[in-house]
Structure formats: C-alpha cells, structure tokens
Specification:
Helices cover 11% and strands 38% of the residues. With 438 residues, it is mainly beta.
C-alpha cells in the first residue's frame, strides 16, 4: 500500500561533498548538514487517518520536498523544511535535539535494568513538540499564515519522525501539512551517545526492532523516598461514558472492538482491539492490536504517598485477589501545581504522560520541553504484576495517565487511564487525596 521511502538523500560536509558511500575519512571535516526526504501519506495511502476529520481544506494539496538538519553546536540544530514548489520555507532555529533523544534520567543511573527500561519506554512513546509564534521563521511571505509547527518523534523506532504544520481556518487551528521523514541513522547514534554516554549499539535491538526487555523486579526505594502513605478513598466512574472530544473524538474511528460505545467498563476485557500504529507512523486497521485490559477490570485499593522531595505518588491496585491478573499501576514524581483544575468534560486539557522513567509528555510546547528536561525528571510510571515484576504497558493496552483536580473540590484528583495510542479512556477514578485519618 505504501510507497517505498527514499530515506537519506544527502549528507554534506563543510566545504566538500560526501563520498557515494556516505562515509567519513580521517581527513574529512565533521558532517555539518544532513538532508532527508519528506513523504506524505494521503488518500489511499492512509485510509484510517483520524486527522481527515479535522484537517485544513488544503491538506491533501500540500507537499514539501525535504528537510535539512544544520548543526549549530552541542546537539543543537536548525531544522529547515524545504518546499517542493514556490511555497514558503519553514525554519526552526537552534533546536535542542538532545531533548528528543531517549535519555537515561539521573534517578536510574547505575542500575542497568532501569536504564534499559527508561531508554526503551522513552522511545516506545510518542513525543510531539509544538513550536509556536516566535519559535520558528517562515522564509517568504508566509502566504498560508502557518501559525504552529510540530516536530514528532513517533513510537515505532528511533528514526521515524514527523513534521506537522497548522494553519487557522474558520477560526480553528487545523493540520495543514503532515510529512514523515527518516532521521539520519549515523547522526542519531552520535546524539544518543552525546546525551547518554553510552553507545547506541547497546540498545539498538530494542529501539530499532521493539525487542522486549526482561520482566524483572523493580526496587522502588531506588527511585524515591516516601515521607507519608495512606490508603485513599476513591470513586469508580468506569460505568460512565468518557467525553468524545479532542483526540478521543478523532481517534474513535480506530477502535476496532467494542464498537459504538464510550462506556469505559466496556473496554476492560481482553476482547478490546485497536487499530495499531505501523511504520512509518499511521493507524492501521488491517493489523489489529490486541490488549490485556482485563488486568484493569476492578480497582480494589488506591495509595497516596507524599515524597520527601515535595512531590507525590499514586498506586492503584487492580484485581487484588487474582495471582494472574493482579496489577499495580504506580505513577510517581507528580507535582500538584502542574496538574490543572478542570471540569470533567475538559479532561483533554489535563496533565498527561506515558509509562516509563523521565518521559516527556506526548504533547508539549518547546518551551515546556526545555523547562522539564528528561535528564533531571522525577517522573515515572510503571505497571507491576503480583510478584512486583515489570509489565510492558503496551501489551496491556495503555499509554499512561491523564490527571486533573476536581473543579468543585481541590482535594479530589481525577485519574484517567489512556488506552493504547490514546484512542479511548480505559479508566476514570476520583481519588480523595486528603488523609482520612486526619
């Protein structure tokens, strides 16, 4: 179905062209500029594209030729998106590409297993960063009034990235152009080592081919220090529908089973199937993704923990009486002040993140990405089984939590669970964070 992608079409040396083998000699200058082809997936190339319901009227007519990565220094690059005709060139200046690299966060350094889980989970979850007015330049008239540019490192392997432009139409910012590109492999390995001090080859089988890490025990005491803990009261809202707004609305088409429902409890069986996400980065109903969502069928206990660093942690224990299905869902390093207060119908504006260690959130501004570096992040999200062994959240069928405080009671926290690829919500609990013994 999909056209073959001509991945790297040029690599240029300072003052000299690369050899036909694209290899450096000892006499060569360092590679300063990389050029990669941009591809578009339109019409029959992408029949299950959820953006078609919300895209700009010109979306199917826009094409860009290629993308340049021009080195500045220390992992910073200009990103130059070149048109295939007379349309405007878009330039992102001095972008810190290292914040897009899967990163060993400081809290897991020295633990080989946790370092691996951190690296793997950062790659296996999408990171889409939006550059707003002032963050980018349009060389030309900006005849289409491009108002936002997104760079996405998608979750399929290290090299599959995306560029998305947004333009206002009918008072709404809409996807105007979407291009897929293959990040230069040699450059990726260089940046990975610069970021982590490890050779990319140590992790390449996991990051290039989705090889599963081992299921081992995790010592939570290595990750945080608990100051206080109590069993928190909660209300289960899974027998209600979740709001079909925003991402959930456009992606509802890619829920394969159950159909015609938004009641959360309907999804909490192993029969639930979603369209999977396939290379180079599209939703594919021809390759259904199975789940193990019965692991979340019944929430039994919720723990609230205050941490000595001023942050907090939640642990949700599901199916406590089942040795096969018992599941601990732990989300830690949470900052009360970064979680918004919202009405339930505005949940899509909540704080969200993926499973892993030090992850950037799925969607954030460039300013936010720089303000929350993955290297120093205190955040982690884990699933553990009855023996406290790590569970791959993607096999279960979830992507992570979405949180917001209740608009009427500041001590009530809404804990939503995002399904695989965020097609649906597969959990909604209102947790009372006030200590019941006080």
């Amino acid at each position: 179905m999909f056209k073959k992608r001509n991945l790297i079409i040029g690599m240029f040396f300072l003052g000299a062209c690369a050899s036909t083998e694209n290899e450096q000699t000892e006499e060569s200058e360092p590679i300063n500029r990389w050029t990669v082809q941009l591809d578009e997936l339109l019409g029959d190339d992408y029949p299950n594209n959820p953006d078609m319901s919300i895209c700009h009227s010109s979306y199917t007519n826009i094409a860009y030729q290629n993308l340049d990565l021009k080195s500045c220094d220390d992992g910073h690059y200009d990103i130059i998106i070149n048109p295939s005709d007379d349309k405007d060139t878009v330039i992102l200046h001095d972008v810190d590409i290292l914040e897009f690299m899967p990163t060993i966060c400081s809290k897991v350094e020295g633990d080989e297993y946790l370092e691996k889980l951190g690296i793997v989970n950062q790659e296996w979850n999408r990171q889409q960063v939006k550059f707003l007015e002032g963050d980018f330049e349009v060389s030309g008239s900006n005849s289409q009034n491009i108002e936002r540019v997104d760079v996405a490192r998608n979750c399929l392997n290290s090299y599959l990235w995306e560029i998305i432009f947004y333009v206002e139409e009918d008072g709404v910012s809409k996807p105007y152009y979407h291009g897929w590109f293959d990040f230069p492999h040699e450059l990726y390995a260089e940046l990975f080592k610069l970021r982590n001090g490890h050779e990319f080859a140590e992790y390449s089988s996991f990051l290039e081919h989705w090889e599963d890490p081992e299921h081992e025990s995790i010592q939570l005491s290595k990750l945080r220090e608990v100051e206080n803990e109590f069993s928190a009261n909660f209300e289960n809202k899974n027998n209600e529908e979740f709001p079909l707004e925003g991402e959930r609305k456009k992606k509802h088409m890619n829920i394969m089973y159950p159909k015609n429902t938004a009641v959360i409890q309907d999804f909490l069986t192993d029969s639930t199937v979603f369209a999977t996400f396939s290379p180079p980065g599209f939703y594919n109903q021809e390759d259904p993704r199975a789940t193990e969502l019965s692991r979340l069928a019944r929430l039994d206990t919720t723990y609230y923990r205050s941490l000595t660093n001023g942050l907090f942690e939640l642990e949700l224990v599901f199916n406590a009486d089942s040795s096969e299905k018992k599941t601990h869902f732990i989300v830690s390093g949470l900052d009360k002040n970064e979680i918004p207060t919202l009405a339930t119908n505005d949940v899509n504006k909540g704080w969200q993140n993926s499973m892993g260690f030090g992850n950037h959130t799925f969607y954030e501004t460039y300013e936010s990405a720089l303000a929350h570096p993955s290297k120093s992040s205190e955040y982690f999200g884990l699933l553990l089984d009855a023996d406290r062994l790590w569970i791959d959240s993607h096999h279960v069928g979830i992507d992570g939590p979405m949180l917001h405080w209740d608009e009427d009671n500041p001590e009530l926290l809404h804990f939503w669970i995002l399904s695989f690829e965020r097609h649906a919500f597969v959990g909604h609990y209102i947790i009372n964070t006030a200590n019941p013994s006080i």
